[in-house]
Amino acid sequence: MKPLLQKLTETFSPSGYENAIRAVIRAEIEPLADEIRVDALGNLIVRKGQASKNGKKIMLAAHMDEIGLIATHVDENGFIRFTTLGGVRPHTLLGGRVRFADSTPGVIGGERITDTTKAYTFEQLFIDIGAASRKDCPVKVGNVAAFERPFLDLGKRLVAKAMDDRIGCAVLIETLRGLKITPHELYFVFSTQEEVGIRGVTGAAFGLDPDLGLAVDVTGTGDTPKGNKMEVALGKGPAVKVKDGGMIADPRIVDWMIRAAEKAKLPYQREVLEGGTTDARAMQLARSGVPAGCLSIPCRYVHSPSEMVDEKDLQNAVKLLTALVSAPVELD
Ligand code: CO
Ligand code: ZN
Q1: Could you tell me the distance, in angstroms and rounded to a whole number, from the CA of residue 251 to the centre of ligand 2?
Q2: What CATH number corresponds to the domain at position 117?
Q3: Are 122 and 44 in a shared domain?
Q4: Which residues contact 289 (CB under 8 A, 6 or more apart)?
Q5: What separation in Å is there between the alpha carbon of 104 and the centre of ligand 2?
Q6: Which residue range forms the structural domain that includes residue 114?
Q7: For the segment 75-101, what is each residue's pLDDT rounded down to a tens digit?
Q8: Which residues belong to the active site?
Q9: Helix and strand element counts for the chain (H, E)
């Protein structure tokens, strides 16, 4: 899975500009799909299988977009001020590198500060692309940038920008690749604009009107020094979301996931995430409501340019998702 993950995470596609990642994913899955289409919001929707007597219409979603920056102003000396696309935090930025859609690279600099005990605010930061003047700067107001950071293989652990949520995309791709039979009509949805407020999947869920929905996305961990106060840790298995900041997972979905993990003897963790949410929220609230849940991949340093996951968790997530969609679903 490492080469696939490297390809996915190194692709440039901040929210609203998912063309590049959509093309990469499409090339991977086109031969595996029974039907493939792109909707008006740019979601890539892949159907596999047809509903049989004991099958359901199941929607699986992972978002393709990544957090990024967007230029708001270019000053006379060619320095670019910016605002954020999604949940970027200023302390992750200084000294980092970014790349714009036209592939212009830049570095993030900051104004001189006198109180070095305080973190920078966005207002004190700018992007320097090496231009000498506004005229010399190819970046225009509204141009978007993504973090620039190569994939890093630490052996058991893998680090990249945009692990959120290319890791989920990789899990969907590998599940589709390995899937032999299913009684269900499965929709693998690679969604857009999740990081700016769960937008792309909202339209896709309305259009598909599924019987149940499952997102695959990252979740935080509590296993770093003085980190989050939560149970989830890297390497202890994919997490079954019970609750996050935007949804209460359907308890029937939680039970279904846990039963499947135990039956297949796969490690899993129970997840309560206090802030943040996923595409599952929009699936749950689609139309008159859909039983929904989320399979989470434990990830350290979420929304930084170096997000870390454990390779075993990925493999176990693929196994669990495959088990879930290969057998009839009994929700009770
Ligand atoms: Co995110
Ligand atoms: Zn995400």
Answers
A1: 22
A2: 2.40.30.40
A3: no
A4: none
A5: 25
A6: 68-147
A7: 999 999 999 999 999 999 999 999 999
A8: 194
A9: 7, 17
